[in-house]
Each structure stands twice: as C-alpha cells, then as structure tokens.
Amino acid sequence: MNQVRWIVCISFLFCFLPQCGSSLELTELPIGGNIVAVEKTGTTVDLKTFSEPVLLVFFGYTYCPDFCPNTLAKIKAATEGFSEAEKKQFRVIFISIDPERDASETANKYVQFYLPNASGFSFDQSTTNQIVKQYAAYVEKTKDGLSFDHSTYIYVLDSQRKTRKLIKSTDGKEVITKAIQVLSSNSVQTK
C-alpha cells in the first residue's frame, strides 16, 4: 500500500510540476504591500507615491557577498532589452536589512550602481523589523555578526501596491521580464 502511494506521489510530481513554471500567476498575496515609514534621513517613504506601475521590492544589505549582487544583476539582465518607455514601467526598491552599517545614501547608491531606476532605503532597526515582518521575509544575523542569512525573494507589487508575485532567486530572468510586462500593461485585474 505504501509503495502505491509513493508511485502516485512521484507520478503527480512528474506530470504536474513541470507545468507550474510555464504560466505566470499573478494572484494577490497576503504579504508585503505598501510601505509607509520614516527613513533614517527623516523622509517619509510611501510606495504609493512612486509613479511606476510595477515595483520590485528586494531585501538585502550592501555588504552582501553573493545573493544581493546576483539578484540585482539578474534584474538588470532581465530588463536590458527594454525600451526607454518600458524602463519607466518599473522601479526596484531595495530595503537594507543592515541599518547599523547601511546609511540611506549608501543603500541608494548601491542599488543604483546596478539599475538607475532604483531606490535604496535604510530605516531604523525597529521599522526594518516591522517591514520584514509585513513581508514575511527571513532575516537573521550570523554568529560572526558581520553578515546575514536572509530570504532572497523579489516581491512584485502592482500599481495598487499589492503583492502579486514572489520571484525566487532560482527563477530565470524571463520570469522577472514577464511579470513587469504583464503588470505594467494593466492586463491583470486588481481588486
């Protein structure tokens, strides 16, 4: 009996999982969304004030040795073929998870090194913790205190600043390209 269940499970995986990546689901997710918070510079950040219809929210830190630069490079590669008009349809929002070392200006320069249509923010630790919780992101300082283990999702927000997709670090750049194109064309109904 257990062997039959195992075979059914394996069959399901081989028959149905490959199809999961073939379409782009942009359903509204119950995490993330708009952020209204005061940055370390004293400026209020409200994601709804950005004119771009698509925001790609990413958590990281400027001392990150691998995932942060790789993810930003992937976003850059995914959008290199965009026309000037298409480049105005999205913005990358980089939120530092290391407010002790990352000043607001540093976070902004870091992300703009990769993409000119990006904004980097650093909030105080309490606000950072609230935003991380809102997005259900994982952040934990390593034992050496110099780096972080953190989730590497890109949160795709629509024009209403509702989270419509989580893009994994293992997803291809085509997923980023398609998510921006679909959401910026207003072909997805928002509630």
Write a short abstract of this structure.
With 191 residues, the chain is of the alpha/beta class.
Question: Can you characterise this structure?
Answer:
The protein is α/β, with parallel strands linked by helices. It has a single domain, classed as Glutaredoxin. The strands form three sheets. The protein has a five-stranded mixed sheet with strand order 5-4-3-8-9. It has a two-stranded antiparallel ribbon with strand order 1-2. The longest helix is centred in the N-terminal third of the chain and has 19 residues.
Number of domains: 1
Mean pLDDT: 86
> Quick one: how many beta strands?
9
Indicate the proportion of strand residues.
Answer: 15-25%
**CATH superfamily heading:** Glutaredoxin
